[in-house]
Each structure stands twice: as structure tokens, then as C-alpha cells.
Amino acid sequence: MLLLILTVILVALVFEYINGFHDTANSIATTVSTKVLTPRQAILWAAGFNLLGALWGTAVATTIGKGLVDTGFVNTQVIFSALLGAIIWNLLTWWLGLPSSSSHALVGGLCGSTLANAHSNWAVIHWETFEPVTHKVTGGLWPKVLLPMFTSPVVGILVGFFIMALLMILIKRWRPRIVNAIFGKLQIVSAGVMGFSHGTNDAQKTMGIIALILFSASKTDAFKDLPTWLQFLYTPEFKVAMWVKIVCALTMAAGTAAGGWRIIRTLGHKMVRLQPVHGFASETTAATIILCASHWGIPLSTTHVISSSIMGVGATKRLSAVKWGIVGRMVWAWVLTIPITALLAYWCERLLMLFP
Predict the structure, then answer these.
(1) From 78's CA, which of 58, 87, 160, 348 has a CA 20 to 30 Å away?
(2) Per-residue buried b or exposed e for 105-137, using 16+ beta carbons within 10 Å of the residue's own CB
(3) Which structural domain range is residue 153 located in?
(4) Structurally, how many domains does the chain consist of?
(5) Is residue 95 in some structural domain?
(6) pTM of the complete model beyond 0.90
């Protein structure tokens, strides 16, 4: 049993690594496309700030770990199935060059596998959670995942358009050479903030999953005979230990350093042609939205936010500047991620249940 738990933790870290290179484009695509940094410089810059952001807070990890499904129906096998469904979808969309959401892949996988273990009892999904006294909505799948899934791209487009329009008014009398020189330097800063915000949100999702694995295992006899040097695994209450933070942060940074060139080409080149001022506007927009979401424990799709921010910024040139055919393919990937990963994880769990 202990070997199984350690194996699933390893699989969770594999997901974190894949998340790193799958979502590298979120932090660096605009910086590479505007030639402010070389690809290698941009990746190292993003990896460093991803590492710092991953160590910042645990609100998103708590939402993933105990805010979406009934933990009474979660065990090591359920989490393994969830991760398997998410990894399959992430690799498929990476191969196709589609910037889909690793966050939603993980959420869909967790919901699907938990549902399978509960024999399709939909009550195990926390659609909304409330405070006991005031009955105020505090979390759940709808307010924390589904509602932001639809609203965050809209906010990204509108805020990106507004910021870019404001910048165009401020710099309309500037020479192009001066604009590129100033915003080339500013974009390096905005790319760093974007990388930091990505770490605060995306890295925490795997932290939440590992904390859930340890919490679920600690409620059983799995850790009854733990050797002294492994006592740190015993977690009688849900919490994100410091060692979990550090391991996840390093793993995501390593994945980021590996790069995700297919998605970088989609975001940075195919969707809309960018200059440094556009890159600065889109990264600033996305980073602000993601940092706000991380503060409130919302496992936001960083992919959705940066992609929609680029759309909004690109639309200030003219609507035809955005290649809407590419956007359409991305939207389909966004819409399908949760249901497909839920189905993949559901059937993975049902299959594993045949071999007790």
C-alpha cells in the first residue's frame, strides 16, 4: 500500500512537470514572439519566477484538495485515475499545439474518478459550499471553477483591450523606436510577474492533490507501520506541508525549463502578431487577473486568461488582426477539457475497480 501511495505521488509530480512545459507558453510566448528575449532566456526567466510563485500561499491548493469533491470517496486509486485522465488530455493537446487548461484537466479528472468510486452518485460533487451560520457561498465547483471558466476569458479580452487602448493614447506621439525600446524592457518585467502569477496558481493544484493523497492515506492503515524516516508522510488533517510546496515548485520549474514549443508557436505567432507594447499589455492583464484569483483560492486557467488577453490586445489593431480560426480551435479545447478528462478518469477508475 505504501508503494502505491508513493507511486501516485510520483505520478502527481509527473503531472506537475507536464503542466510546467505544457503551460510554459503562458509565461513566455509573447516575450519570444516580440524578440525581447531569446527562447532560452525566456524559459529560464519564467522558470525562476514560477519557482518563487509556487512557494506563495496555499489557497488554491486547499480548494483543489478539499473544496470540490467529498473526500470520503477519495483514495489513492481515485487520485491516480484523476491524474491519468488529466495527463492523457494534456499530452494530446500539447501534441496538437492547443493551449488547453491543465487546471481544468485536473479538476475534471478528480470529479470523474470520484464519481466512479461513488458509483455515479452525483452528491459527491460539491457544486456549492456554504458557511454554516450565514449560508454564504464559500466555494464549490460552480463558483470556484465553472463560473470563472466562462468569465475569466471575457474579463481578459475586455481588460486587455482597455489597457492596450489606453497605452495607444499615451504613446501615440512617440516614435516607434522609442516605444519598442521602452516596452521591450517593461515586457521583461511583465513576463516575470506573469511567471510568478502562474506559479501561485498552477503549482498549487498539484500541492493540493498530494496533500489530499497523504490525508486520505492517513485515515486508513496505510501509514500504520511507517519507518521513522518516512513519518513526515503522516498527515491526520488536511494541510500542505512545506516539503510538498518545495518539491512541487521545483518540479514545475523543471517542466517550465523544458519548454513547450508547439503551444508557444500558437500563442506567440499564430493567433496575432505582437510587438513589445502588446506583449506588455497582455502579460500585465493576465498576471493581474491570475494573482487576484490566487488570492481568493480560485484554480483559474492561466491558459484561458493569457490567451484571451492576447485576443483583447490584438483586437485594438483591428478585429481581423486576430486569427479567429485558431481561436475557434482553442475555444473547443477549453469547452471540452472538463467533460473529456472527467470521462477519461471515470473509465480509468471503473477499470481499476475490476482489479481489487
Answers:
(1) 58
(2) bbbbbbbbbbbbbbeeeeebbbeebeeeeeeee
(3) 2-127+137-348
(4) 1
(5) yes
(6) no
